[in-house]
Amino acid sequence: MADGDLLWGQWQGLSAAQREFAAAQLSRYFLSPLLAVDAREPVRVTTFGQTFETYDFLIAGEWLRFVPGMGRVPLGVATPLPRPMHAVAQQMGLAPDAVGAALSPATTVDMPPMLVARTSIPSTLEMIGQVDLTTQQFRGNHFAYQPVRQAVLRLLTPTVASLDPAAAELAPVMATETLELRQVGATTYQVALRHPDWDRQALQKRLGGFGFALASEREYEYLMGGGQAELFPWGNRLPDAPMNFVPNRFGLTVPLRRPGSELIDAPVGKSLSLAGPPTGADWLSLSPFFRTAAPAFATTRYRKIVRIAL
Questions:
Q1: Distance between CA atoms of 115 and 185, rounded to whole angstroms?
Q2: How many C-beta atoms lie closer than 10 Å to residue 46's C-beta?
Q3: What does the pLDDT read at residue 13?
Q4: CB neighbour burial string for 246-268, b if at least 16 within 10 angstroms, e if fewer
Q5: Residues 60-99: pLDDT tens digits?
Q6: Neighbours of 243 (CB within 10 A)
Q7: Confidence (pTM)
Q8: CA–CA distance from 122 to each of 160, 192, 261 (Å)?
Q9: CA-CA distances (angstroms) from residue 216 to 36, 93, 223, 266, 270?
Q10: Where are the domains of the chain?
């Protein structure tokens, strides 16, 4: 596998067989030996008239997506605000200077290939794997699972004792002070540890122990914006129709209604908590370049990444 194969232009030009080979190499050599890749699936994302072929990897109960790297990526917004963005600023009822002040400054950065969690989770949760209700089989971080195995099975007792999973009546989400189980399939629950005493340092230490990290501000902007030099991932305008999710060239899940800001490896917050459809200046928080004061840790969410270096 050549270095260039993991960059956007070359990756897009690979054949299906070449992408499959590269994905197999990624799952073997760039993750902690403490974690197994429990599944690998090809994915096709079509956004903005462009098709992106990639792979998802199930690791410790979470799906991580491969995102190719890209050289000389324009990120942030210049000051004064570029003329093409003036019209959307007017739509939001904001002066161009006010828009520019809320966004990260313009720069150009080389981005590494990455594996990135498809969705964010609360910053006080640590996803460790998935358990099947009927077989009790666990896939994920067995070192973290063994101390809580009996507690997990006690929560699942109504189904474990039944030969017919459909006959059991279990909530889609079950939690104790130390555990959270979330249904992700007909007979499968995601297993997470709850850490109410965590802070940013504790989270980063745990992530680093398995080769994961929080994205830097510029990496976050690249992942959420798709490497586009525009105010929003879909362009320099407000959307023409209502949305449930912010469209993203890499197909990463970014809900429009956000329960909290996403945590990054920088002393700023990205996005804002939104309880309903954005109006006026709320739209600005959907820009990947938006930045605000760092929020309280307990209110944030995070998505882990793996930087890939050949």
A1: 23
A2: 10
A3: 95
A4: bebbbbbebeeebebbbbbbbee
A5: 999 999 999 999 999 999 999 999 999 999 999 999 999 9
A6: 15
A7: 0.93
A8: 28, 11, 10
A9: 25, 30, 10, 6, 11
A10: 3-121+203-307, 125-194
